[in-house]
């Protein structure tokens, strides 16, 4: 048995991590990507047998954002002891790091920051971003509760929601650009 998929790492969880990067830093202007399959067989958790796979498990992207910032992204399927997800932002005044033991969209996420050469220190999320009651279980229950509170606010206030169809189209154009760049081995302008 062989599992065939069209770059699922790029869609989820990689797509969620790249979406987080774009939400924080802005959209890509141009990029170059490489997509490969390094692990040709995975062990089935149900049968214990090796299962052949041809789905890409490593995605590397180097690009420039519309702001002019240079970025690099590495998304990989790690079979043993993955280190989680990190977004590292280096600027003229200091450094910020967002870290999660798994995917950003599942959490829990921890934010660290430092000015200049000071050591990184954990920064709690400002209270204005905590919309759910204290004691809400962490992980998916917390995330879903936060999303429901945000949706309820949008419906009550009549304002727009930042995650909409236009954002989905933008993100899919980015995914297509990554796939095209890897297939054609060239820089793709968005």
What does this structure look like?
The chain has 190 residues and is an alpha+beta fold. It has one domain (2-82, 127-189): Dihydrodipicolinate Reductase, domain 2 (2-Layer Sandwich), CATH 3.30.360. The chain is built from 4 helices and 11 strands; from the N terminus they run E-H-H-E-E-E-E-E-E-E-E-E-H-H-E. The protein has helices at 8-11, 14-25, 140-157, 165-184, and strands spanning 2-3, 28-36, 41-43, 50-53, 58-65, 70-76, 85-90, 94-100, 110-115, 121-123, 188-189. The strands form 3 sheets. The chain has a 4-stranded antiparallel beta sheet. Strand 3 (41-43) and strand 4 (50-53) form a beta hairpin. The longest helix has 20 residues, at 165-184. Mean pLDDT is 87; it is low at 1-5.
Furnish the topology, listing elements before pairings.
Blueprint: E1 2-3, H1 8-11, H2 14-25, E2 28-36, E3 41-43, E4 50-53, E5 58-65, E6 70-76, E7 85-90, E8 94-100, E9 110-115, E10 121-123, H3 140-157, H4 165-184, E11 188-189
Parallel strand pairs: 1-4
Antiparallel strand pairs: 2-5, 2-11, 3-4, 5-6, 7-8, 8-9, 9-10
Poorly predicted runs? 1-5
* CATH topology annotation: Dihydrodipicolinate Reductase, domain 2
Number of domains: 1
From the 3D coordinates, which CATH architecture would you assign?
2-Layer Sandwich
Query: Helix content range of the residues, please?
Result: 25-40%
Number of strands: 11
- How confident is the prediction overall: mean pLDDT? 87
**CATH class membership:** Alpha Beta
Number of helices: 4
Determine the CATH superfamily. Answer: Dihydrodipicolinate Reductase, domain 2
Q: Any idea what the radius of gyration is?
A: 19 Å
Reported for the largest beta sheet, the result is: 4 strands, antiparallel
Largest beta sheet: strand ordering: 6-5-2-11
End-to-end gap: 37 Å
Oligomer: single chain
């Amino acid at each position: 048995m062989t599992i065939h998929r069209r770059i699922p790492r790029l869609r989820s969880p990689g797509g969620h991590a790249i979406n987080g990067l774009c939400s924080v830093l802005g959209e890509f202007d141009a990029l170059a990507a490489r997509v490969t399959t390094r692990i040709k067989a995975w062990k089935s958790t149900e049968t214990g047998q090796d299962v052949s796979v041809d789905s890409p498990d490593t995605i590397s992207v180097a690009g420039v954002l519309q702001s002019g910032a240079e970025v690099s992204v590495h998304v990989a399927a790690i079979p043993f002891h993955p280190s989680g997800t990190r977004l590292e932002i280096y600027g003229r005044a200091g450094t910020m790091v967002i870290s999660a033991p798994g995917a950003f969209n599942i959490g829990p996420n921890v934010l660290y920051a430092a000015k200049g050469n000071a050591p990184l220190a954990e920064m709690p999320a400002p209270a204005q971003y905590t919309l759910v009651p204290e004691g809400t279980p962490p992980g998916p229950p917390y995330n879903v509760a936060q999303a429901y509170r945000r949706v309820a606010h949008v419906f009550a206030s009549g304002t727009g929601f930042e995650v909409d169809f236009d954002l989905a189209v933008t993100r899919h154009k980015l995914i297509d650009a990554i796939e095209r760049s890897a297939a054609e081995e060239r820089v793709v302008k968005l």
